[in-house]
What does this fold into?
Amino acid sequence: MRSSRCASSTMAICVARALRQVATCVTRPTSATAMNVAAKRRVMLGVARMGLHNMRAPCTFQAVRPQTLGLIGLGAIGGSIARQVKQQGNRGGDEITVIGWSPEPAERALAAQQGALDDAPPRATDVARNADLLILAAPPAANINQLDALVPHLKPGAVVTDVGSVKRAIVARAEQLGLHERFAGSHPLAGTHRHGFEASRPDLFRRAVVYVTPCRHGETAAREIVDFWEHVLEAEPVVLDADRHDAQLAATSHVPQIVASLLGDFLARHAPPGASLGTGAIDTTRLAASEPRLWTEILLMNRDELLVALRTLEESLGSVERALETGDAPALTAWLTRAAEWRRGVGP
It folds into this structure.
């Protein structure tokens, strides 16, 4: 029993050290960042407890359905939007013309061949000139660059959104570009660890929560985007401030990615050669298969909020480590029970 306890304690210590290393790698905070971390740490759990996923604002205005949808990026998210919009038209719904661009010509050709696009022009500017609703579906930093490049080419009256998982930077950039009334960010909680058009699905967004993050004084654009997600893609849009979005997603999305990758890295380095893995290890490391370059970008763009969340996670891991070192069964049971009750409460 003692040898087993020591082995478990050693693993907990290894994971704790790895978490500290991850927190260091995410960023070496400037003095201003360091000053903000403690304050953000105090409010993070309070924000998470607010139940922001239930902040659904009723939409009573008459939205204008886009006649032409433009997509910049045709990966798992952009491709799924295109597939679902075209599928709805084929069922007899309002027909929306879908045009899309990808930096990969083969991806554009594949999307067109499979009926997800009505046109696949060779330049992103051609999409921007014709779209009533333009969706930036590239990685977060690329979306900001595309926004800068495409603003001069936007169709008059067009509305713009993106689908990245970090919102403060692009909402701030849209405001700087004077797009307050034409841009609102989006973040569908329907991603996958797979990528590329081959990973797209025509039902990815049905009943999925989609956060919509408006600019200041951007209620009209936000309502148009909400209507599109709700009535065209059959999702469940939630209007949320960009700052709160990034704080919440640091805890509910970005930390889970780090934990899955942390466990994947641990097993890659410490699992005995040829060892079989059970469903537990496979399930908990699913996210570790996500695209590394994309997640490097996401983690660095949200690093201030993420550091707060990681340091809170270290406290929880430290309590497990102490319970193992001292053989404190009640403390360990209480920790496991709290986690089990939470998990059973969120669904299958």
